[in-house]
Structure prediction request, 302 residues.
Amino acid sequence: MLSKFNRWTFFTFTNNFKKIIMEKANPIITVTAVFVLLFSYGNMSDNLFAQTTSKSVQTQTKSTQTVTKPVQAKPKSTQTVQTKPKSTQTVTKTAQPKSKPVQKSSTPAPANKSKDVGIVRIGTQTWAVANLNVSTFRNGDTIPEARTNKEWVTSGESGKPAWCYYNNDPANGPKYGKLYNWYVVNDPRGLAPAGWSLPGDADWTKLMYYLGGPEASGRKMKTTSGWIDGNTGTNESGFTGFAGGYRVENGTFLNLGSIGTWWSSTEGKASSAIDFYLSLSGNLGRSSSPRQRGESIRCLRN
Prediction:
């Protein structure tokens, strides 16, 4: 559309032109002039319209360019998404320590769990090849150690469990094991480690006769060293019987190197129990001894 200034100019020009035509020209010239005027007005309108249209197109182009700018910014947000693997790596790092406590989690072994130093098959029986050397019952309760003679006598008179090393010397433990009174043997808390039992009279007798009876079996059970005066055995049975001695009721230690004694789980008469022993002879003897006495224990595999 024409601006106010152009319309006013056009209007003034038209009026002046009409006056001139009316005054000086004939009707034909007048008609011709009118056509010329209309043609000029049409060209001016077209030019103005074209300019206006061009400006609006430029304006639209600018706005279109402006619209495209945010579209170019979108890849930036996509780049931000690439940071996710970093957070994943962080989670992995924190997750690694969680596995460590799974490797540290372990259940403590029972205090009387036997260190299996070895077994030997003799006939249909499986025996340990070392004397028992534990200081707790199977349930983990402690067996009192009686070091002095008074402690040993007190335990025996009261019928309480007790143990000691020969001569109260721990250096004798690895070779001879511990000496126990019989009240340890029959305690309901159990002495033999899991998978083992304490042999009874019948078990010892079975071993004896498998090896040839009382006179022949002892020599086959005794060790090839550790016996005084050369009274050793052949140990062909594999029993490995040392002369570990014993402790009598008043607390005195006797016969290390000359006698080895082992409790059975079988009761004897009154306050006694059945035991078996190796001596300087080649025999395996059987006797009934006071329960206060301290003797070795050999376990039998279940």
